[in-house]
């Protein structure tokens, strides 16, 4: 699970460094247009230290209003909200994964579009953000899986309350925290790709400490209590073995059903995790492995992609 905010405290330089060329959130936010799309945002817009219009990214209500405005302006999304305590995803960063996935599937040519492209989103969260962006940008069809019952309920609510999403996004409950595919993928079902933003930390205490550091970094204030201020329920933020453990389990389980996805993919937040994961992939017999670098300003991340099929592209 990567950072929960844009970390855009600098006044959104133009264009945002490192984002995918098709990312429509690359350019500086036009707050006049955004507040037109979502009037509630106006209350949170004020000049930052550089004199540019911005919002306080440490304030969950501000991030919620910004996300609502971005999704409404870009995709006409009428309803987007997450229950208190769940993740407020940075929309530009989440979009990047979708665009890089499109490039992976096309081999860098014209991005594939339409409902014949089926994607499995493992751990969709209450925000259902990858399916919302993938369905809105490319018309892809998603199966979204989730272990947290509240997140599942919420993701389903988002899908039915936005016209056009219901035929493209199906949310399935995963009852086992340790399974990625079993119990949610039906026999014979195939996908162009799977994607995942895995829980990052290996314990609740580690997740809380990291969240405190983030709030401190964004607001310059020391949080009074170990609240996960701008989102992130325990299950969203940590799992047994942290990111490394989660992706390792995913690799082992993907090798048992190699033909289910043309490409299996996952975000890897920590660069030190790449080497061991690439080793597991070799041991698991992957035919091809790719590391797709992503950056948003200073923040670096990457998508690890693997396939058991030869000539998986195109
Ligand atoms: N995709 C969202 C949420 C990522 S947080 C985003 O990018 O913002 C990771 C999510 O994975 C959490 O919602 C957590 O509940 C869920 N999760 C954890 N283990 C899972 C599993 N084995 N299968 C499906 N979802 C899982």
Summarize this structure briefly.
This protein is of the alpha/beta class and 314 residues long.
Defining key terms:
314 residues, alpha/beta, Rossmann fold, seven-stranded mixed beta sheet, two-stranded antiparallel sheet, 9 helices, 17% strand, disordered N terminus, binds S-adenosyl-L-homocysteine
Distance between the termini: 29 Å
Q: Give the overall pLDDT as a whole number.
A: 88
Annotated CATH topology of the domain at 90-202 and 233-307:
Rossmann fold
| CATH architectural group of the domain at 90-202 and 233-307 | 3-Layer(aba) Sandwich
Strand content: 15-25%
Helical content stands at: 25-40%
Structure characterization notes:
The protein is an alpha/beta fold and 314 residues long. It has a domain of 188 residues: Vaccinia Virus protein VP39 (Rossmann fold, 3-Layer(aba) Sandwich), CATH 3.40.50.150. It contains 9 helices and 9 strands. Strand 1 and strand 2 form a beta hairpin. It is globular, with a radius of gyration of 19 Å. Bound molecules: S-adenosyl-L-homocysteine.
